[in-house]
Design goal:
185 residues; alpha+beta; 6 helices; globular; disordered C terminus
Length: 185
């Protein structure tokens, strides 16, 4: 376990172009995730079912339902969240990854999910020690995904982050939605 490294050298560009088409399906990653996470979706005509025009999100962060409509004033209602924020990843080992590995991390469906825009903005670049989804029912899955992403890309966690994740996972195993940290014996 290590502390958080300095943010020195971090820039979004270090993780490749935003929403690259890394799976080579002709659609950018943002639209791939919208298509995966939204129900009742429609697509913009002439885009080979790539550009999501509308849909319904059962938002896991808030437990609410959001009607998504693509548009200048509405698209930000649903954002694509990096479960492990790229800035956090940078400070916990991603700076050592190759450029290709960082692009994979930024576009990995395991690390991405459609989410309520204001809640995602409030999360910012926080880790599990400083931010958890307001929807307590989703916290087990959330920290499990963060842990899986960090393991996949050999990123580390700080002591505070470890303790927060441990507390959530203990309550998950106990079958409670209680989010009070408890230590493993």
């Amino acid at each position: 376990m290590k502390g958080r490294a300095p943010k020195t050298g971090y820039a979004r560009d270090e993780f490749g172009p935003a929403w690259a088409d890394i799976d080579q399906n002709g659609c950018d990653t943002r639209n791939d995730i919208l298509a995966r996470d939204l129900a009742d979706k429609t697509f913009k005509a002439g885009t080979n079912n790539c550009v999501v025009a509308s849909g319904v999100l059962a938002d896991k962060y808030t437990g609410t339902t959001i009607n998504f409509v693509r548009g200048q004033d509405t698209s930000s209602d649903v954002q694509i969240d990096h479960v492990v924020a790229l800035s956090d990843a940078w400070q916990k080992g991603a700076r050592r990854l190759s450029a290709d590995q960082r692009t994979q991390l930024a576009n990995d469906p395991l690390n991405l999910m459609a989410a309520d825009g204001p809640t995602n903005s409030a999360k910012g670049n926080n880790d599990a020690a400083t931010w958890l989804p307001p929807n307590k029912e989703f916290r087990c899955e959330y920290v499990a995904r963060q842990t899986a992403v960090k393991a996949k890309y050999t990123l580390w966690v700080t002591r505070a982050e470890h303790d927060a994740i441990n507390g959530i996972l203990v309550s998950c195993r106990a079958g409670t939605s209680d989010d009070r940290p408890r230590q493993l014996d």
